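Box 3.1 A note on notation
Throughout this textbook, protein chains are presented in two layers. The first layer is the amino acid sequence; the second is a token string describing backbone geometry. Keep the layers aligned when reading.
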Amino acid sequence: MPPAKSSTSDGVYQVKITLKGIRPPIWRRLLVEPDTRLDRLHHILQEAMGWYDSHLHQFAVGRTLYGVPDPDFDFGPEVEDEKRVTLRQLAPTAKSKLTYEYDFGDGWEHEILVEKVLPADPATLYPVCVAGARACPPEDCGGVWGYADLLETIKNPDDPEHEEMLEWLGGEFDPEAFDLDVVNRKLKRFQSKPARAPTKSRAAK
């Protein structure tokens, strides 16, 4: 995806993304440009959380849904085109919230909270992750309850499904793991060019 033009003249959003229904919480804190379109925000959230973008998704504010409209899907609630909406439009001020749902089968719901509106740093590339905690659950593990069962299984060597589950996971899984540097390396492909101070023209010298 090509980088978006910088829109940091009026600040950046500090947002906290929290995966609902899991304790201790799994969360990420990002600095993002408020004019980020929702389709772009979707990809940013995938990388920040650690998902693989292999399932459907949608955003929600109240009863209004935003996602990828399907003309062949003619029942259920109408979905607004996420490409036509920005984060600022749905969350115009600090303390605004919206919901991001990923994988309608497992039903992973994320709360997106705009914690603050901060001055933009012209030397900083956005988006950037500034903090977070705990690993993203594996894809297709069965949602909140399936993930809880998975953790119980892998920590109990006597469980009859212990070895099978470890094999499914690829050998090991640390639910407490979080690497800020890895997340920010993944986010680099979405970063805009930093704002530059205006330069004087020769005629003005």
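The two ends are 40 Å apart (CA to CA). The chain has five helices and eight strands.
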